Amino acid sequence: MSNKQNNIYSLFQVRFPKDTSAAFIETVDGAKYSYAYLEQETSRIAQFLTSLGIKKGDRVAVQVEKSPHVLFLYLACLRAGFVYLPLNTAYTKNELSYFLENAEPGLVVCKTETEALFFGFKNETLKHVLTLDLNEQGSLIEQSRSTAAEFETVACDTDDIAVILYTSGTTGRPKGAMITHGNLAANGLALQEAWGWQQSDVLLHALPIFHIHGLFVACHNVLLGGSKMLFLEKFDSKTVTQLLPKATVFMGVPTFYTRLLDEPSFDRTCNQNMRLFISGSAPLLEQTFEDFQQRSGHTILERYGMTETGMNTSNPLNGDRIAGTVGLPLPGVETRIVDENNQPVENNNVGVLQVKGENIFKGYWRMPEKTAEEFTEDHFFITGDMAQYNKQGYISIVGRNKDMVITGGYNVYPKEVELLLDETEGVKESAIIGLAHKDFGEAVTAVVVPNDINNPPNIDELKKLLKEQLASYKTPKKIIFIEQLPRNTMGKVQKNILRETYNTLYK
To answer: In what order do the strands lie in the sheet with 128-131?
Structure first.
């Protein structure tokens, strides 16, 4: 494979449909974007951004609402060899300040309403702030319109960084996972094989596109398949139910499936053309798995991945899909489950899951020591997830040794929230835990020790304070006051006891 072809956009390109007038995206309001339009628009944007002085390897940070042109911007960045940095639309000023200081992007693309905020971040590195709004509005579109729709895709090695995705650390310091062109290509092709993707498939896309599920797993499958997607700005159970007859594949987080089950019009008649329902980003309750199977006539395919690795395992397309498991290793992925001495455990015993393959990220941006800590001597990535094999070799994720909470498909690291709570007047100490929740998989829950148990802080004021400094999904759904946190003999907070104590809080 030549150097140029190692740019993942070149891989997409050779798999576009022969007739490029074929639809790539259709929106709910009837707008259609063909593969030919994709090629032209990404050329314009790549050419325009290059004219601003953005070079191969420069970071482009993006915090905008979901729209087709955000996807075209992403693909243009790939074409030009830029490093795409998607940012959750819920991130606050404090969070954004860290990301921009750490990643040092040369360009930010944001909503018009946040343009002034990002102008305040401009410095010697961040020289350009452009806007992109819904309905193809904003300075990015306006200024790139007159640019010629011609651009030669920049040559990239498989090891060149394509994307940086920030994932918070247990210390509260977010880490930028460097995802390469080779990582994306390997994972995308493995999923094409595992899920039997066909050019005739139509994906119903209702996920956000600022993380791996909606951007890589969903969009890359469509691009590698030369197929089409029905593009929703956000998930709405009624709209999804209405569009399912036009689709063959649907990807969602567990919350989507519980909401579909609550939708009266969702039944077997709207699923007659469906080939595959896929779930990920958070644990799927076995009850939801069984209820969906009975109601829809389809068995959800659950898979497992991480920001740092893309997808690692999947229940089979053809074969048993077992509730409570995330299936078997994908093509090209090695897995092992080990004990505290890094020795393999027997089936049904719990250990730490480690993975290896071309899908595994390059490392953490500007954190070589942290990167080294997360890999074994034989180059397996230590996921931090506690898992076990069953007798058929299927993997079940049973917990996380780092106490991360996954709520609605988003990762929340307790330390980040605990640090804010512990600095608050009237709070002595706190512990953040995840508790089972029907809609969100896990709900972020705060257990707080106040200075005075008889006169604790006001819960609404605490939540308001947190919402001002954190993305909304990180804010605790409930706050519980107790006299002291349970600790072991070494003084470590025993969060397992807290989870057991309050495990029925949301039931």
So the answer is: 128-131, 107-110, 59-63, 83-86, 161-167, 175-180, 363-364
Q: CA-CA distance, 92 to 216, in Å (whole number)?
A: 24
For helices 459-469 and 414-422, angle between their N-to-C axes, nearest 10 degrees: 120
Q: In this structure, is residue 425 part of a structural domain? A: yes
* Cα–Cα distance, 166 to 312 (Å, whole number): 19
Domain with residue 78: its CATH number is 3.40.50.12780
Rg of the chain over Cα atoms, rounded to whole angstroms, equals 23
Structurally, the chain folds into a number of domains equal to 2
C-alpha dihedral over 139, 145, 149, 153, to 10 degrees?
0
Range of the domain at 440: 405-501
Q: How many CB atoms lie within 10 A of CB 422?
A: 14
In whole angstroms, give the CA distance from residue 118 to residue 46. Answer: 22
pLDDT tens digits, residue range 128-185? Answer: 999 999 999 999 999 999 999 999 999 999 999 999 999 865 445 789 999 999 999 9
Task: Spell out the residues 6+ positions from residue 155 whose beta carbon is closer than 8 angstroms to its own.
Answer: 2, 3, 4, 6, 7, 81
Is residue 114 assigned to a domain? yes
Cα dihedral 156, 159, 162, 163 in deg (nearest 10): -170
Q: Which amino acid, residue 194?
A: A
Could you report the per-residue pLDDT of 402-426, keeping only the tens digit for each? 678 889 988 887 888 988 998 899 9
Give the pLDDT band (50/70/90) at residue 493: confident
Q: d(Cα 438, Cα 419) in Å, to the nearest integer?
A: 28
Query: Within a domain: residue 457?
Result: yes
Last-in-domain residue among 157, 187, 206: 157
Q: Is residue 210 part of a domain?
A: no
For residues 231 and 25, the answer to whether their CB atoms sit within 8 Å is yes
Instruction: Tell me the C-alpha distance between 179 and 136, whole Å.
Output: 28
- The mean of the pLDDT values for the chain is 94
Alpha-carbon span 191 to 492, nearest angstrom: 41
Q: pLDDT tens digit string along 28-47?
A: 999 999 999 999 999 999 99
How far, in Å, CA of 292 to CA of 149, rounded? 46
Whichever domain contains 454, its CATH number is 3.30.300.30
314 neighbors 195 (Cβ within 8 angstroms): yes
Backbone dihedral angles phi then psi of residue 447, each to the nearest 5 degrees: -110, 115
Encode pLDDT of 326-343 as tens digits. 999 999 999 999 998 999
Please tell me the total number of residues recorded for the chain in this structure: 507
Enter the DSSP assignment of 296: H
Last residue of a domain, one of 134, 157, 180: 157
CB-based contacts of 289: which residues, under 8 Å, 6+ apart?
A: 299, 300, 302, 323, 324
* d(C-alpha 394, C-alpha 74), whole Å: 35
Give just the sign of the alpha carbon dihedral 91, 96, 102, 104. positive
pLDDT tens-digit readout, 237-268: 999 999 999 999 999 998 899 999 999 999 99
